[in-house]
Write a structure and sequence with these properties.
Keywords: Glycolysis, Lyase, Magnesium. By secondary structure, the protein is α+β, with helices and mostly antiparallel strands. Helix content is 34%, strand content 16%.
Length: 209
């Protein structure tokens, strides 16, 4: 079967913050290869799945992900090689069962998500369809309303102005996705002018706000 998983590999790469993160590469029997990386945010909520870091202070101040790389290339690979990449629900269920924890801390959420996303991308490519079409099916014709972060607070900014971490906008009522994006962009730039006029800092925070 050309959509069977033949190989799963992983490597440590550097994300946009200059920190190590995981990149997973999936190869299918038909020769399709796709990749997914899993950068993380500056903070982790108490109910979020946990990424796996090495905690080896001699490398990247303990933020390395070689353990997660090993989990992908050994335990996860052993379980998923031979599976049909098109069966995303079965792939994800197998990953969750293999990990066996409620917060995905044994194998690492970074390892699990990286594998899940790279499998989905490879399956979509093998069928010559967009990722949204592969996941949503033939009836996936409605894009969600975008949510955009326009102000950062908390640990996402160097100046502790507020404990609220993200101020977001949603362009409800826009006639199209592109119009909604335009509304967001115009709000973002207008807000910057208003803040500057009032003497506030307009530097860009950790997530663009």
């Amino acid at each position: 079967m050309t959509t069977s998983i033949s190989k799963i590999g992983a490597r440590e790469i550097i994300d946009s913050r200059g920190n190590p993160t995981l990149e997973v590469e999936v190869t299918l029997d038909g020769g399709i290869i796709d990749r997914a990386s899993v950068p993380s945010g500056a903070s982790t909520g108490s109910h979020e799945a946990l990424e796996l870091r090495d905690h080896d202070k001699s490398r990247y101040d303990g933020k390395g992900v070689l353990q997660a790389v090993g989990n992908v290339e050994n335990e996860i690979s052993d379980r998923l090689v031979g599976c049909d990449a098109r069966e995303q629900k079965q792939i994800d269920e197998a990953l969750i069962e293999l990990d066996g924890t409620s917060d995905k801390s044994r194998l690492g959420a970074n390892a699990i998500l990286g594998v899940s996303l790279s499998v989905a991308k490879a399956a979509a490519m093998s069928q010559q369809v967009s990722l949204f079409r592969h996941i949503g099916g033939s009836q996936a014709n409605l894009l969600p309303v975008p949510m955009a972060n326009i102000l950062n607070g908390g640990v996402h900014t160097d100046w502790q102005s507020t404990d609220i971490q993200e101020f977001m906008v949603m362009p409800l009522g826009a006639a199209s996705y592109s119009e909604g994006i335009r509304w967001i962009v115009e709000i973002y730039h207008k807000l910057k002018l208003v803040l500057a006029e009032k003497g506030f800092l307009t530097t860009v925070g950790d997530e663009g706000g």
